[in-house]
Amino acid sequence: MGAPRDTPWLDDSAGRVMRPYTASGGRTRCAVALDLLSLVTATGTRPRGALGAEHALALRLCAGSAAVTVAEVAGQLRLPAVVVKVLLSDLMEHGAVTAQAPRFPGGGYVAADDQSLLRAVLDGLRRRL
Asked: What is the rounded distance in angstroms from the CA atom of residue 41 to the CA atom of residue 124?
């Protein structure tokens, strides 16, 4: 097992030291429509105004690669996706990140709740097991 992952809201020895919704100021709705497969990229622009430590961590994850999904950011931060959507929405409003709908083979866009996509993922998982 790797080194401890202490963050402002999670301590390996103490566990969660603050409620996840504290990171988003108690908000559960974001101003920008994001789904779990939205691709988020840092713009290189510093956010105008002060944002929390959670925002800085999310921005660092987005800047660390060409594009990262909302689900990946949530997994890395160990926060619920709804909280991460609010954080990323705040960063988008400050011009620090951009997001685009995911692209799938064939050039189309598919909603994350598209049943055909979910069935294809389930079939793929079953084949691997």
From this structure: 28
What is this structure's pTM? 0.63
Q: Is the distance from CB of 70 to CB of 37 less than 8 angstroms?
A: yes
Mean local confidence (pLDDT), 87-97: 91
CA distance linking residue 42 with residue 45, whole number of Å: 8
Sequence-distant (≥ 6) Cβ neighbours of residue 123 within 8 angstroms: none
β-bridge partners, 89: none
Closest CA to 46 of 33, 63, 34: 63
How crowded is the C-beta side of 1, counted as CA atoms within 13 Å? 3
CA distance 33 to 108: 18
